[in-house]
C-alpha cells in the first residue's frame, strides 16, 4: 500500500513538470502585455514601459523565463504579481477562505440533496417521485449558472429585495449578526452552484444505485429477511457509492479552484475571480500559480480517490 | 485679434473692471476651457482663484459609511506604481497632492496654502520655476509631521529608474529643492507654461511619506510594506486592503481641512461588470457610488426609473477618434509594414480622406450608443486644456462624399466598389473589443458601403490592442490597418503632452520598436513648427492660438476623424453629493463629498 502511494507520487513528478511546461509556454505565447493600460496614458513615456518590461523579465527568451520560474517554485517562491506588485502566494491565500467557504458549502449542499434524492428515486424507479426528481435534474443541469445566477438576482434582490447581490468579505457586525449576514449573502451563490451540481449528481447516484440494486446478493439479503432500510443502506449503498466517491474526489480540486462565472456574477473575491481578472490583465505569474496549484490538486485527489477505492472495496488491490 | 482682446480682458480683471467669472465665460466662448482660462489669468499676472466649495456639513464625521463600487478594483495602493486609473483612485483615498482640480477646472488647494502666481511671486515670470508653500501642522496618519522633505523624497523616489515608477515621466527632468520646512521650489529645464503637473492631481501628484519609503528607494521599491498599507495625509485612514476586492478606511480625526470629512468610514469594493454595478447603485441602492458606468444609455434610463440612484456626468477632454494611416499597411519594407518608406495607396489622395470624414454619422452614433455620455465634435482637441477650435465643422452627407469621389476620378466598378488606376477602395478598420466600438464600426461601414467603399471590420482584444508587445502585429502603434479607432485619455489639463505625440520626429517605426507616439505616421512641417513654438511659448494667448492652429491643421489634413467627445459617467445614490471633475480622478475631490439628509 505505502509502496503503491510512493510509486504514484514519483510518477506524479514528471507529469507535473510536463503540465507546468505546457502551461508556461502557452501563457508565454499568448498575446498581451500586463502594462497595456500604460500604453494610452500620455503621462507615461514609452521608454518607461520598455523599462518595466525589462525589469520584470518579459523580454527574456521563453525557455529562460521557464527555468527561472521553475527554480523559484522549487524554492517555495510562487512568483511576483506584475499587476499588484506583491507575492502571488499572499494574493492566493487572501482569497482561499472565501472560495473554500462558498464553493465548499455548495458542494455539501449538492451532496445533501443528491444522495437522499438519488437513493430514494432508485428504490422506486419510475414512480411519481422518480419522474419529478428526474425532470428537475434535467432542468437543473440544462440551465447554466450564469443564467440562474442572474435570474436569482432579478427575483431575490431586485424584485423582492430580500438578499444582497454583492458579496462582501467585510461585514460590519459581530457574533450572531455576523453569522446571519454571512449566510444571507451566501444563500444565492451557494444555491446557484449547489443546485447545478446536485442535478447532475442526483442522476449519477440514481444510476449507480440501480446498477447494484438488481444484483443477486441484494435479493439474497432480502431473502434472509432483512428490512428494506438495512438492505439499502448497508448492502446497496456501500457498493453503489464507489463510483460516486471518485466523482466527489475529482470535484474537490474545483472547491479550491473556485467557480469563475458564479464568482464574477456575485463579486465573490475568490480564486476564480482572481484567475479571470489576472487573465484579463495578463498577470502571468498569478495565472501560472493558480493553474499549476490546480493541476497539483487534481493529481493529488486522483491518488486519494484510488486509495479510497481499495478501502471501500477490498477486492480491488493496489500494487 | 484674439491676442489683443485677451490682453485687454486680462487687464480688466486685474483692475477689477471685469469679474473672474465673466472672463472665464468669455474664454469659454472663444473655445478655452476653465482650467486654461485660469492658467492664462495666472500667467497674465492675475492670481488663480481657488475653486468654490459646495460642501455644506458643519461638523466632522457623523455621515456613516460610504460604500463605493469600482467594478475594476484597485490592485495596488502605491500611486507611483499604478497601472491604471483604478489604482490612482484607490491610492488617492489615503495619499494627497498639493492641489487638485475641481469640476469647473479650477485649482483646489489640498496640502498647499497658496496657488502660485506671478503676482504673489511664487511663479517665475519666465516659467522656469514654481514655488509651493505647504500647509503647516499637517500630520501623516502615523502622527509624523508632513514637511518639504517628503516632497523632495517623492521626487527622488519617482525619478529613480530602478524604482520603476510609472510617474517617472513627470519627475525625470525637473529639480525639486527644499527652501525651508514648508517651502519647495520646482525648477524646470525650460520655460514650462503648464507648471501644475508635478505634485498636482491624483495621476502623478500624490506625495509619499519619506519616513516610510526612504529605505525602499530604487530596486528595493517592491519590498516596501507601505506599498500595501498606505500611510497618507488624506481624510481617511487606511484599515484593510485586498487587491482587486476591497479597500477599507476610517475617518481621520486630525484631518487638516475644517469640518471634513463627512463619512465615518469608507469601503471600496471591486469586481464584477459595469451593468451590474449600475444596478447595485441605481436600482437596489446597495452601494452609494459606482465608478465608470460605461453602459448603454437605454439601460441606464430604464434603471433610473423609480430607482434609488442616478447617473452623474463630468465633462473632460476624452475624444473617441478614427485615425487614418498615412503609410501602406499591406506592403512590407525591411520587415516592417506601415513603413515610412511607403505611402498609403488610397489615402495619399486627400479626396478619399475628406470623403471618409463625411461618412461618419456622429449624430447616429451619439443617439444609438453614447446618449447623454457623448457630444459630437469636429475637433481632435476637445481637451481638459480645451483649446477648442471654432474654425472647424463636420457633416454627415453620403451624396456629397459620393460626388466628391466621383469627381476625384474614383468610379464605381462592376461590384459597386469604387476604383481608380486599378486601386480599389477597400479598407480595413480596426478597434479594440468593446460594445460601443463594434456598434460604431457597423454604423460607419454601412455609410461607406452606400458611397462605394468596402470596409472590412476587425476587432482586437483590448489587452493586445493597447499592449507594447513588440512581437504582436495587432497593437495600435503598429497600425497594420487602414483605419483604427480608440481614445487616448487626457490626464492633465494641458494639451502639450497630448499634441506632442504627433510630431513627425515621433513616428512609430520598427527602429524605435514602435515606441514612437505618432501612430498615424502623419508628417507635416507646419504642425511640427506650431507645436515646437507652443512648447516654448510663455505668452498664454499666443500659446492658445498655436494649439488651436495645430488642431486645425489636423482637421484640414483629416488625420483623425473625431467620432465623439466622451464624458465621464458615474452612478450615485440620490442623496449622495459627489464632487466629480472631468479633469481629475473620481476620488480626487473626495474630501468634499457628503450626503444630503
What would you say about this model in short?
The complex is a heterodimer of chains A (319) and B (597). Chain A has 319 residues and is mainly alpha-helical.
Please, what is the average pLDDT of chain A?
Answer: 84
Strand runs of chain B, count: 21
Q: Please identify the structural class of chain B as seen in this structure.
A: alpha+beta
Global morphology of chain B: globular
Query: Separation of termini of chain B?
Result: 51 Å
| Major sheet summary line of chain B | 11 strands, mixed
Low-confidence stretches of chain B: none
Specify Rg of chain A, calculated over alpha carbons: 24 Å
First-to-last CA distance of chain A: 7 Å
The third-level CATH topology of the largest domain in chain A is MetI-like fold
Count, helices of chain B: 18
Number of E strands of chain A:
0
| Oligomeric state, counting identical vs distinct chains | heterodimer
- Percent range of helical residues of chain B: 25-40%
Total count of domains of chain A? 2
**What is the second-level CATH architecture of the largest domain in chain A?**
Orthogonal Bundle
Structural class of chain A: mainly alpha
For the CA atoms, what is the radius of gyration of chain B?
25 Å
What does this structure look like?
With 319 residues, chain A is mainly α. Chain A folds into two domains: 2-88, no CATH class; 97-312, MetI-like (MetI-like fold, Orthogonal Bundle), CATH 1.10.3720.10. Chain A has helices at residues 2-29, 46-55, 62-74, 88-123, 128-142, 145-159, 175-213, 216-223, 228-257, 260-266, 271-280, 284-312. Chain A is globular, with a radius of gyration of 24 Å. The mean pLDDT of chain A is 84. Chain B is of the alpha+beta class. Chain B contains 18 helices and 21 strands. Chain B has helices at residues 2-15, 20-29, 34-43, 85-92, 148-159, 168-171, 201-204, 210-213, 274-283, 297-304, 350-357, 362-370, 398-407, 435-450, 462-465, 496-500, 525-536, 540-557; strands spanning 65-70, 99-101, 107-109, 129-133, 175-180, 183-187, 236-242, 246-251, 265-270, 289-290, 309-324, 374-375, 411-412, 418-420, 423-424, 426-432, 454-460, 483-487, 560-573, 576-577, 594-595. In chain B, a hairpin with a 3-residue loop joins strand 7 (236-242) and strand 8. In chain B, helix 9 packs parallel to helix 10 (297-304), helix 12 (362-370) runs antiparallel to helix 14 and helix 17 packs antiparallel against helix 18 (540-557). The termini of chain B are far apart. The model of chain B has no long low-confidence stretch (mean pLDDT 88). At the A-B interface, helix 2, helix 4, helix 6 and helix 11 of A face helix 6, strand 9, helix 9 and helix 15 of B.
